[in-house]
Each structure stands twice: as C-alpha cells, then as structure tokens.
C-alpha cells in the first residue's frame, strides 16, 4: 500500500470516529469512500438506513475543496445540515426556504470557503447567481442523493435531475461524482449511470436485508382494534402509521387522538405550514405517532422510529420497503406491520388508472408504465398472501437470495403445519356462488359463520345452503381462509368501489372434489400473534432501563434548549450503549458508539454527571 493510501486509510477512520463517533464502517461504506477519494465516480445502491450519507460526507471532509450535495427535498437538507453542524462540520443549504438576505449571506460564506458541504436542490443549478458562485468555487465532488429521481421509471421522477450533467460539464474542473439511491431495479440503475453521465463508476449494491426489522402481515376484520392492540406494545415509542388516502389519515388520526394517543397527521391536502409544523412535532418528539399518506417520509432521518404500521397495503414493494424501512434506522429492533384488505387492491388500481404523473409521456409509454404498475401491484398483493417467510419474499423481489427462513417475521412465526381446509373452502365457495359475487368478504364470512345480523337477513344469505356451516370457527380464521383462497384463484375479487368476492377461475376444481385445499394457519386458540415491541433498545436490565429513561430526559432537555431533534443530540442506540458501558470519564465516554469528540465537548459532561448520579443512587439503595 502506498504511503498516501495508508495515510488516507487512517484519516477516514479518524473522521468516522471524531465527527460521527463510530468505530467501524458498515458494509459498502469503505469501498465507496475509497473510490471517491481516489477520484473515481461511484453509484451506491443501499437500502434506507444503511448509511449512504457518510459515504460522501467522509470524503467531503478529507478532500480539499467543496462538496456539493444535490438533494430533492428541503426537509432532507435541513435535517442533514442540522446533523452535520451538530457534529461540528461546517455545512449549509441553499434553497428557497431562505430569505433573500439569508441566501446572499450563505452564498457569500460559501464563496469564502466557509463550508465543506453545501446542499442544493437540482433546480438551483441553473440559477444565475448560483452558477456564478459555482464557476469560481472549488467544487471537488458532487454527490447526488436520491439519484433514482433522474429516471422516469422510478417512482419519484424529477425532470430537473436531468440538468445535473450539464451543470457538471460547465464547471472548470470536472469533480468526482457520487450517486446514491435505495432503488435497486436494473433499469433505474442503468438510467442513473447513463443520464447522470457517470464516468466508469464503481457500482456497489449492499444487501437489502434489514435484520433488525420484524415484518408482519395481518388481515384484521377490525383494523382500528388491531391497531390499538399493536400500539399497546409500543407505548411511548415513535412510529408512523401510513394510510392510502387523506380521508383514511384524517379518520385514524382523529380516533387516536380521541383515544388519548399523542398523534399528528400529514398529507398533501394540508397547508405547507401545517405540514411543516406537524412534521416537526413528530421529529422533535412532541408527538409520538405520525399518521400520514405516502407524502410523508422522504427525507425524514429520524433514526428512532420504532414501528411503521401500514393501515393499508401500498401500491408496490418498492414503496412498501422504503416506507417500512423508515423504522429502526438506528439498528435497534423495530416492527413493520402491514394490514391487508382486498379493498386496498381496488383503491390502488384506481390510483394507477388515474395516475397523472406521467402526462409528459406519449400514449404508448404511458400504457407501458401503467402495465408495469399493475404488475408491481400484483407482486405487492403476493406479499400479503405469502405463507412463507416475508423477508425472503421482499429480498427476492430485489433480486437477493436468502439462506432460508429468517425467524424474524410473522410468516416464520405463524408457520404451523398445513391444515386441510377443503370443507371450509367448499362452504365459502358455495356462499360466494349463491351471492352471485354481489358481496364482500365480510358478509360471506358472516354467512358461513351463521351470523344473525340485519345485513345477512336483508341480503338473503341466511337462505344459502352453507349458511352457518362454519359456525364454530373464529371470524379471523374464516377471513384468513378467504384470503388464501383469493391468492390461489378459487375466489375472485372485483368491484370498483368495494371489493366484491365471487367464485374464481379455479373454483370448479374445489367444488367437484378434484382439488384438496390446504393452508398454513395459526393454531385456533392462539390469538393472532401480537407483534412484539421493545421500548428500550436491546435487552437492558431494570437498572439500565431506569438510567436510560433519565438519559432520555436529559437529552430532551438539551434538545429543547438547542432547538434540535432529540435523536440528533444522541440516538437511542447511543444512550442504550451508555447504559451498558456506564462510562465514568471522558475516555470511556468516547468509547461509546455515536459519541464523537465534538459531541463530547458539547454534551459529554452532562451525560457523565447523569450516569454518575444514577450510580450513587443505586449504591444508596443497595446499602
Ligand atoms: P441512508 O441515507 O442510507 O438512509 P443514513 O446515512 O441516514 O442512511 O444513516 C442511517 C443511520 O445510520 C444514521 O443514524 C447514521 O448516523 C448511522 N450510521 C451510518 N454509518 C454508520 C456506521 N458506520 N456505524 C454506525 N452507525 C452508522
Ligand atoms: Zn421470515
């Protein structure tokens, strides 16, 4: 190894330790950093939470000159710049949230070389005053965040991303370019390399697995009730509830607040101001639960989100994995639960058919996009129906193989023996045929269970030959069987506004006895397994838990004073690590993961004092 290379190897670790307080690189980070330091373009494809930012932030701090970070969203920039400044790095953003005065001042500082990293939105690159600055500044690296925005096949196409290569061409010296994304499909990847004109880049894809996330799918008859049960395991935790529609957000949020939860909401129908306000409430821990449409989340770096509950099935696996992936970015256990109802398929189909995002495409291309979207939706439905390991299904979608079931998902947990449900399937099919496909799954389930409701009487389903044929069986189980029959094509789902269930294309095989139906179902006496939530990261003992709460309170106090989100002071993971290490001095404190030199200077002593106080109290108690 040359002297220069080994010199750099030392300093990149030093930077990691000193500014970010971490001891080791995560998979892929080191390769990407080395490549950028050596002047070679990179394309880093890593899942949300894998640590893409460090891949350009560390070279930015080591290299001479300025690194320009192109990022699609103001909220994203604000968060990142806030975190960098908190870590002692000089960084700034230039965007429309600044007043003209602030903007000019920031630009002047930038020209004077005050910042190592400058965040801009792509639209900024074509503006006169910015260009004037850029042409004279020493821009040694351009990092393109959320690089998939350049591809019209991705989900977040931003035409202004296409202007990036022009901008780079105009610079006096071509900087090294790093592109980063969490979208893994081959088409998007090729688009990024081609459209951003990356120069023989090092392309690195790290594993998409997020081992700390527990995945679960449920198909509850009463989603709100099931949500309450789930939230019961997450008291005091921060989490996100995604709904498919604005109306859904309003309803769920209102109910939660009425039931005493600390919740807020976010969707495109709210004013900018309310959105910002609600988002801040969530980020600063003033509200615990964010109920939102998919408009929420891009650029949210909050690392201590302990759960993501999808109240409805999203439109594709990419969206699902990205949204669910906002849980547990700190690496601590977190829960990702998805509620599925056939109605969600109908709603998503409507969204796809009425999608106006691609109006600049010609008719043939639009048709192609629509078909692709339909296919993606089918794969999403497949996830809800899969009886095997959910993680295996997700990773396979992204082209990754796993070594067998993960043992950390509801698919793996619920893996009972396959049960023969042929008789049940016949009863349900009989009811579906009798109804002429006019009713939803709920009413069919009520009919075969022999419910005596007004609705059943009015529908005439109490006259159906299989009325009451499954009277001893729980509603949950009947619905599971119906769901399983839909996935196998024994039942069909139709309808525009409500999903209606009728006999499917393979119904005959069951009714005439040619096919046996078997499914893996949870044992009857077991309640649907509640997704377990851990409030305190890792497995802390009782004394540690009490210390953890005190450190959390101290963190909150500091965060309030400084006007930054608590997790930016220290993450939950760092606090948990403090509880285990119980540092008594500066040196020991610096050994805690997430405590860098700069942060130690700012907060170290206060946290040491808190730990010391607790130790004395414990001693006092045992005497
Ligand atoms: P991404 O942009 O890939 O979604 P981030 O860059 O926001 O992810 O990183 C996610 C979290 O992981 C952040 O809290 C970050 O500080 C942390 N992190 C990144 N790299 C490391 C590392 N080498 N060791 C420990 N934590 C890390
Ligand atoms: Zn699994």
Features:
17 strands, globular, 4 domains, Rossmann fold, binds zinc ion, binds adenosine-5'-diphosphate, single chain, 623 residues, Arc Repressor Mutant, subunit A, seven-stranded parallel sheet
Look at the structure and name the CATH superfamily of the largest domain. Answer: P-loop containing nucleotide triphosphate hydrolases
Mean pLDDT reading: 87
Which spans have pLDDT < 50 for at least 5 consecutive residues? Answer: 1-9, 525-536
Strand content: 5-15%
Distance between the termini: 58 Å
Number of helices: 26
- Strand order in the largest sheet: 3-4-2-5-6-1-7
Provide the CATH architecture of the largest domain.
3-Layer(aba) Sandwich
Can you tell me the CATH class of the largest domain?
A: Alpha Beta
Number of strands: 17
Q: Could you say what the CATH topology of the largest domain is called?
A: Rossmann fold
Computed Rg: 27 Å
The major β-sheet equals: 7 strands, parallel
Shape: globular
Task: Give a summary of the structure in a few sentences.
Helix content is 47%, strand content 13%. The protein has 26 helices and 17 strands. α11 links the parallel β10 (263-266) and β11 (289-292).
Structure explained in plain terms:
By secondary structure, the chain is an alpha/beta fold. It folds into 4 domains: 12-205, Rossmann fold; 213-397, 3-Layer(aba) Sandwich (Rossmann fold), CATH 3.40.50.300; 417-521, Orthogonal Bundle (Arc Repressor Mutant, subunit A); 542-622, HRDC domain (DNA polymerase, domain 1, Orthogonal Bundle). A 7-stranded parallel beta sheet has the order 3-4-2-5-6-1-7, sandwiched between helices. Strands 8-13-12-9-11-10 form a 6-stranded parallel beta sheet. The chain has a two-stranded antiparallel ribbon with strand order 14-17. β12, α12 and β13 form a beta-alpha-beta unit. α22 (542-562) crosses α24 (572-581). It starts with a helix and ends with a helix.
């Amino acid at each position: 190894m040359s002297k220069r290379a080994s010199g750099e190897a030392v300093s990149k670790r030093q930077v990691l330790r000193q500014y970010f307080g971490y001891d080791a690189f995560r998979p892929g980070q080191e390769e990407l950093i080395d490549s950028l330091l050596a002047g070679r373009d990179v394309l880093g494809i890593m899942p949300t939470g894998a640590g893409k930012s460090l891949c350009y932030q560390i070279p930015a701090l080591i290299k001479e000159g300025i690194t320009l970070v192109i990022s699609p969203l103001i909220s994203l920039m604000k968060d990142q710049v806030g975190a960098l400044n908190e870590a002692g790095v000089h960084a700034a953003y230039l965007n429309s949230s600044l007043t003209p005065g602030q903007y000019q001042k920031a630009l002047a500082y930038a020209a004077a070389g005050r910042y190592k990293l400058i965040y801009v939105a792509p639209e900024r690159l074509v503006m006169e005053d910015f260009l004037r600055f850029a042409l004279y500044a020493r821009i040694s690296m351009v990092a393109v965040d959320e690089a998939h925005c350049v591809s019209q096949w991705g989900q977040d196409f931003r035409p202004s991303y296409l202007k990036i290569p022009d901008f780079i061409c105009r610079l006096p010296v071509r900087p090294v370019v790093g592109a980063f994304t969490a979208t893994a499909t081959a088409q998007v990847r090729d688009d990024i390399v081609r459209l951003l004109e990356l120069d023989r880049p090092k392309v690195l894809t790290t594993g998409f697995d997020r081992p700390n996330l527990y995945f679960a799918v449920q198909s509850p008859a009463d989603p709100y009730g099931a949500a309450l049960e789930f939230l019961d395991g997450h008291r005091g935790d921060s989490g996100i509830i995604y709904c498919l529609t604005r109306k859904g957000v309003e309803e769920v949020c209102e109910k939660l607040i009425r039931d005493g939860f600390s919740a807020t909401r976010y969707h495109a129908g709210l004013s900018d101001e309310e959105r910002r306000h609600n988002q801040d409430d969530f980020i600063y821990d003033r509200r615990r639960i964010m109920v939102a449409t998919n408009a929420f989340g891009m650029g949210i770096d909050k690392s201590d989100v302990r759960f993501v509950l999808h109240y409805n099935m999203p439109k594709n696996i990419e969206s699902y994995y990205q949204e669910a992936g906002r849980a547990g970015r700190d690496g601590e256990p977190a829960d990702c639960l998805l509620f599925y109802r056939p109605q969600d398929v109908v709603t998503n189909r409507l969204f796809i058919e009425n999608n106006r995002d691609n109006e600049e495409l010609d008719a043939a291309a639009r048709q192609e996009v629509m078909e692709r979207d339909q296919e993606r939706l089918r794969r999403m439905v497949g996830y809800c129906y899969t009886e095997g390991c959910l993680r295996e299904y997700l990773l396979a979608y992204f082209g990754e193989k796993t070594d067998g079931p993960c043992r950390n998902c509801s698919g793996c947990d619920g893996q009972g023996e396959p049960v023969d449900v042929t008789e049940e399937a016949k009863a349900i099919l009989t009811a579906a045929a009798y109804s002429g496909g006019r009713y939803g799954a709920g009413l069919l389930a009520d009919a075969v269970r022999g419910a005596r409701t007004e609705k059943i009487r009015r529908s005439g389903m109490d006259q159906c030959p299989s009325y009451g044929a499954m009277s001893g069986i729980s509603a949950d189980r009947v619905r599971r069987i119906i769901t399983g029959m839909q996935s196998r094509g024994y039942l069909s789902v139709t309808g525009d506004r409500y999903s209606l269930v009728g006999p499917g294309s393979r119904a005959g095989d069951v009714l005439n006895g040619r096919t046996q139906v078997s499914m893996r179902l949870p044992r009857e006496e077991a309640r649907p397994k509640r997704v377990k939530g851990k409030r305190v990261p890792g497995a802390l003992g009782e004394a540690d838990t009490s210390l953890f709460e005190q450190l959390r309170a101290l963190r909150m106090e500091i965060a309030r004073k400084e006007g930054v989100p608590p997790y930016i002071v220290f993450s939950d993971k760092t606090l948990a690590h403090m509880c285990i290490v119980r540092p008594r001095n500066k040196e020991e404190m610096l050994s805690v993961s997430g405590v860098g030199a700069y942060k130690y200077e700012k907060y170290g002593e206060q946290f040491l004092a808190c730990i010391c106080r607790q130790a004395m109290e414990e001693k006092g108690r045992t005497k």
